[in-house]
Amino acid sequence: MPTLADLTEDGRRFVSDRHLATLSTIGPTALIHAVAVGFTVADGVVRIITGDGTQKVRNVERDGRATVAQVSGPQWLSIAGRAVIERDPAAVRRAEELYTERYRPPRVNPKRVVIRIEPERVMGSSGLFDAS
């Protein structure tokens, strides 16, 4: 099973070019809650910045299962794992810096938190991962 460390040059470009994705979490009625997000991949983890108290934050706090999926034409990537909410100012700053590199500077949000996903399963289209 591939990991983020197995991304090819094309795979690394795919997770660093400006693409939106979906974040899927488990909602309060056990249905899947999917929402469009920007995300970053660095240090072997996925980070999503958002406002504290949003539905996605409440979902992660109740049930940490989460999947980020990105698609662009024939290329796709899915990263599933356990998510936690980070409120530490240094963690939020790091996530904002990464977001700025991939997308643009985020708007000011004093209630910003980070959804941090530790990947357990990574899947994607051919060419995004080393074949070895």
Automatic annotation (TrEMBL):
Give yes or no: UniProt keyword Oxidoreductase.
Answer: yes
One GO CC annotation, please? cytosol
From the UniProt annotation, give the residues forming the signal peptide.
none
Keywords associated with the record: Oxidoreductase
Query: Domain Pyridoxamine 5'-phosphate oxidase N-terminal spans what residues?
Result: 8-122
Record keywords: Oxidoreductase included? yes
Q: Which InterPro entries match?
A: F420-binding_dom_put (IPR019920), F420H2_bilvrd_red/Heme_oxyg (IPR052019), Pyridox_Oxase_N (IPR011576), Split_barrel_FMN-bd (IPR012349)
The lineage's top-level taxon is Bacteria
GO molecular function list: coenzyme F420 binding; oxidoreductase activity, acting on the CH-CH group of donors
Name this protein carries in UniProt: Pyridoxamine 5'-phosphate oxidase N-terminal domain-containing protein
